[in-house]
Amino acid sequence: MKLKPTALAASVMAAHLSLIPAHAQQEVQSDDNRANPQQLDRVEVRARQASDTDMRRRQPVAKQIYGREELDKYGDTQLADVLKRLPGINMQGNQLRMRGLGGAFTQILVNGDPAPPGFALDQVNPASVERIEVSKAPTADQSAQAIAGTVNIILKDAPRVVQKDLRLGLAYNHDKPVVNGSFTYGDRKGGLGVVMPVSFFSWRLLNENDGIRQGRDAQGKPQTLATAGTDIPYGHGVNLAPRINWKLGEDETLTLQGFAVRNNFRNVGETDTTVLQGSAPSSVDDQFTNRGYFQHARLNLQYNNRFQEDQRLELRVGAGGASSEFDTRFLGRNAAGLPTVDRRTTGEGQNRGLNLSGKYSQFVGEAHTVTAGGELERRSREESRRTLENGVDLLPGIEGQPFDATVTRSALFVQDEWEISPQWSAYLGLRNERIRTDSEGSGSTFRSTSSVLTPLLHLNYKFDPKARDLLRMSLTRSYKAPDVQQLIARPTINTNYPTTGPNTETAPDRVGNPALEPELATGLDLAWEKYLSGGSMLSVGVFHRRITGLIRNSLSLQNVGWASQPRWVAMPVNLSRVHTSGLELEIKGRAGELFPSLFEPATALSLRASLSIYRSKVEDLPGPDNRLEQQQPWSFTFGADYRLKDVPVSMGLNLNFTPSYDVQQTLLSRLSTGRARGMDAYVLWTMSRSDSLRFGVQNLAPVANTSATVYTSGDFALSERRQRAWYAVNWEHKF
């Protein structure tokens, strides 16, 4: 399938973004460490290091930046815990959601490159990260698979002075504490800069789960079951992110960046089932174990050369690989305690990737910087899985058969950054991206090709010469290509209902759809940002997205090749159109500057708050709750940090909240999601210039996470998941 550009391409060709000076520190920064490295703007020398807010203000496009202060504040050992506290971001499980949209709509980058398959944010220790950049609209020099936005994780850069930091910690959630730690060494001598962050982390949690499911048994008779269980996930991981910066000449640099992660995970649990109506299932006393690992390593080489004041070249090459393995065993017993089911599923996967990219920038005239470039990426995946039930293969010839897939992505782009006047600046970009997926294997042989042209326009208006008040406007095209798992037509059987008989709506089989097309989105963003002289800021923004080809699971009763009777099957399909809009409010800064009538100017209190309101409508589904899945009506985040006056102690609190809401998933089913609340707190005792002690707690006073799926037949599935608070103490030493 080939997707042609619409009239948006013509309307967007207007202008591009000003050459906003890159932030600088006490000495001139190297090109590869600037806020917007593709720009050829002039260097500005400042007496102090720019804050996160300063860097945000100078960005040519709307972008939020979070540096070491935010990364270190709560003593987190997983990057997912940092992200969940940021405005406009929610974490559901390990999925990151922006603007209330599901995780598939948000693009995750590591140093500007797409994260590999299997990558999760809880695998990264914040000690390996330099900063986080959150963009609400795409730019031409990065992939446009960012309907909700992009989170770019910038790995740690070489410091300008010797750095030797050590952190050791203990954390507790259930039955015994776990340890974590990190060490960072960095130095710069002459033209050579080196940094080596090493971190290890571990976890051990307790989750309690209750549920009620009303449906049909294997004979099609009414059945209502209540379940109660626990599971204990635990494991450990390690991160490495070495980096070498080599200054070959006055305007020529070479950077070697490595990144490696290894996670070993385990999970043990049990579930007891009580029959409230109808017959008993084959097992009512279940136990399961799950173990496995994920590892990923990547090496990037980047060359930068500024030939003259108005010309620049950047070349990048990267290679990496990942592997994973899991082994899950399920043991079921009946009411008499006799074993009935022994099911074991094993699997492994291998990923390899290679990418090449380059771009050339040049001043044109007095007001334009034109950049042109291209990218080529090739990823391959090999996967195998096998399920044995009571020693016999499940679905011989389908289940357990290996498959391999190759994804080739190529892109060409051009952009113009145009300083129209001292007040107006524009960024105009055009990107064409092509993705081809080839897969081979039993039940999974297919080829899928998509090509998307994405025009992009960003405008900035400065109300004053110092850019204390900014108006940002964006008109963009973005998209989301289906992933390999959504395309593979191989079935996944719901093992609660053997293929010798029927299943139910509440327990469907699942299968992919090779005919899926990419989701396309046309987006409009408007934002007003006000920056106060003392470093505080406030922002008001609105956005609208029109998405066509929305991918959502359908549910239907089908005649299938893996069973002699019709089975309920969930399969992803493209719907026609959806509209989503939102209002985003954000404020942060010193309390004395934000509210001078309430606080003294010297009050050591910092405040931050955000409120996001979302609306959406899926046209192919009936109302009133035909909204996007996982998109909450609104979310609220509040944080405060306070430093005691006469004691070297500071403390902080962060609260986020989302209400309950309903979603019409399909014509046959509705999903109700309960309210969610997160509360984190910390206390930092600075014992000396070298040592500090940090106490933190996450998920303080937790609330249960509930969800319920209700079908038109009257059947339903209700679940409740309860988690405990996570307590941590960390000692930090600077040599």
TrEMBL record:
PROSITE patterns, A to Z: TONB_DEPENDENT_REC_3 (PS52016)
Domain TonB-dependent receptor plug: 57-150
Keyword Ribonucleoprotein included in the entry's annotation: no
Stretch forming the signal peptide: 1-24
One Pfam family it belongs to: TonB_dep_Rec_b-barrel
GO cellular component: cell outer membrane
Major location (coarse): membrane
Localization: Cell outer membrane
Coiled coil: none
Highest taxon, organism lineage: Bacteria
Keywords on record: Cell outer membrane, Membrane, Receptor, Signal, TonB box, Transmembrane, Transmembrane beta strand, Transport
Name the UniProt record assigns to this protein: TonB-dependent receptor
Organism: Inhella gelatinilytica
The organism's taxonomic lineage, starting at the top: Bacteria, Pseudomonadati, Pseudomonadota, Betaproteobacteria, Burkholderiales
